[in-house]
Amino acid sequence: MLFITCAIIIFLISFSQLYAFNLQSNNDTSSIDADFFSNYKKTTISINGINVTMAIASTDEHRIRGLSGIEKMNENEGMLFLFDKPSKQGFWMNKMNFPIDIIWLDSNNKVVHIEKQLEPCKLFLACPVYNPEVDSLYVIELRSGFADDHSIKNDMIINFDVPTKIETND
């Protein structure tokens, strides 16, 4: 029985990796570097006086893709993930090419959790998922070191306007 359970788990993990790979292959992000996520709606947020251009990931496809596959991200660039309702949103570093900081915010834009200097996964099976302990509605991904360089702490407010209608150029 243990053998069958292990086989099922391995199959499910392999299938999910293949599904994620196919999504990313069909939506190649490697050419996006020239114009930071040109097919995403953007917003600018100010974090402790630093203006950051955020690509908005508001669809399942954009949230699954995230920053996977791009080669680099500048200091003043990031990704803002919008969710339909607060929950404990999990993120991982699968198919990432550079380290990042991840910041979770609640519905009042208050920082509820920070993961710093997360390294890309080397092996799919050893790729941890990072979750906050409390619900969040927004998640921000920034260049590794940004949170420390700009004194981002739990309970601080990061002000930004969420567009009421998200349009993409896809």
Question: Can you lay out the helices and strands and say which pair or pack?
Answer:
Blueprint: H1 2-26, E1 42-47, E2 50-57, H2 60-65, E3 77-87, E4 91-92, E5 100-105, E6 111-118, E7 129-130, E8 136-143, H3 146-149
Parallel strand pairs: 2-3
Antiparallel strand pairs: 1-2, 3-8, 4-7, 5-6, 5-8
Notes on the protein architecture:
The chain is of the alpha+beta class. It has a single domain, classed as Jelly Rolls (Sandwich), CATH 2.60.120. 21% of the residues lie in helices and 30% in strands. It has helices spanning 2-26, 60-65, 146-149, and strands at 42-47, 50-57, 77-87, 91-92, 100-105, 111-118, 129-130, 136-143. Strand 2 (50-57), helix 2 (60-65) and strand 3 form a beta-alpha-beta unit. The protein is globular. It starts with a helix and ends in a 21-residue tail after the last helix.
CATH architecture: Sandwich
What topology, given as strand order, has the largest sheet?
1-2-3-8-5-6
CATH homolog superfamily: Protein of unknown function DUF192
Largest beta-sheet details = 6 strands, mixed
Helical stretch tally: 3
Order of SSEs, N→C? Answer: HEEHEEEEEEH
Report low-confidence residues grouped into runs of 5 or more.
Answer: 5-34
Shape field: globular
CATH class: Mainly Beta
User: Helical percent range?
Assistant: 10-25%
Please provide a brief summary of the model.
This protein is of the alpha+beta class.
